[in-house]
Amino acid sequence: MTEPNPETDGGIDSGGGSESGTDAGVGTDGTDSELGSDGASTPVPIADPELSADAIERVESVLESDRLADGPEVRAFEDEFATYCGTDEGVATANGTTALHAALEALGVEDGDAVITSPFSFVASANAIRLAGGTPVFADIDPETYTLDPDAVERVLEERDDIVGLLPVHLYGLPADMPALCALADERDLFVVEDACQAHGAAIDGTRVGGFGDAACFSFYPTKNMTTGEGGMIVTDRADVADRSASYVNHGRDTSGTGGYDHVDLGHNYRLTSVAAAIGRVQLERLSQFNRARRENAAAYDDRFADLPLETPTEPAGSRHVYHQYTVRTDDRDGLETTLSEREVGTGVYYETPIHRLPAYETVSTAAATLPRAERAADEVLSLPVHPGLSERDRRIVVEAVRDHFASQ
Ligand SMILES: Cc1ncc(COP(=O)(O)O)c(C=O)c1O
């Protein structure tokens, strides 16, 4: 079921097909003879979205109903997802990009408004600001967490007086430093939109992401911690933001009306389908289990890589990482990527080019910034398979391939 899509999220590299549920060929000592007797391995994909029979049944019942587009299934998914995040409201959208765009529109971003975001993210984080008419301003990242560095944000805030908001990204499933970023925003009356597209269920001191900013946006793309195929969600405690977002994603309709031709504002069709919502409701029921499996896989890697010349992911005290990606860092990134590809272990580089260096940003004046930490990270990061579909055997194949790479140096 792996679904490579180089157009979103950096694509999925080698190791496409999956037999990751099988356990054939496991060495009896469980340590270093993971390959079959002929030395062959099955590929270990970087992502392997899993849909249960329950999801198929729920989709069938939607298909049998007369509500394929927007409808009660979408409303139920919005309520359930908002409850999961600990927020008052949820507004479903067609994908994570549209969630970000609609949230920024709802917060009133206008032409020329500057919004600080991370240069080390999927391009949609910054694109959403441009789509709303604003200007993305990049601040450098913390080199250990790969998320926006509050000190770097503060330096930008001291230099510019046109910043209206912050858009931190919870990259790879680790929350950005929200207490520090929200304090900076509060002091200056800025809005905060969390890009939580990679971080369903991540938390700081027990508060789930989504509960920190004025709004938070999620993606349900197939590689994410939960999926609806394509899909997105805005969550918020602000009734005004929920109302304006719900209107924006539905052609600017009056949300208190009957859904007819009562267009009170400019809007788009960014709606989620009922089929996608049906899948999402079942995936949400399984999200905790998926995240537990991701965390177990990550802990096993941490343990087996501890003695290698490799930086493994960090989890600051109080933070709960949900390992959308398990991203290691080495100055021999390309060598490690080649070894893993030869061993049919799927890997991904998220992201090879920081946003401010992308051709699409050549004409954006703020892209001229020098952001050395993001630029160095882009040369050194490599993500390994950490998805919940990994078997013990898959994990051992990955560990053995990584260890062999460094043993041969
Ligand atoms: C950090 C981040 N922001 C935004 C998006 C956009 O989400 P989508 O692909 O659902 O539009 C993604 C997903 O790829 C992402 O990883």
TrEMBL record:
Residues 1-50 are annotated as: Disordered. GO terms for biological process: polysaccharide biosynthetic process. InterPro entries: DegT/StrS_aminotransferase (IPR000653), PyrdxlP-dep_Trfase (IPR015424), PyrdxlP-dep_Trfase_major (IPR015421), PyrdxlP-dep_Trfase_small (IPR015422). It comes from the Archaea. Gene3D superfamilies: Aspartate Aminotransferase, domain 1 (3.90.1150.10), Type I PLP-dependent aspartate aminotransferase-like (Major domain) (3.40.640.10). Keywords: Aminotransferase, Pyridoxal phosphate, Transferase. Pfam families: DegT_DnrJ_EryC1 (PF01041). Belongs to the DegT/DnrJ/EryC1 family. This is DegT/DnrJ/EryC1/StrS family aminotransferase. It comes from Natrinema salsiterrestre. The lineage of its organism: Archaea, Methanobacteriati, Methanobacteriota, Stenosarchaea group, Halobacteria.
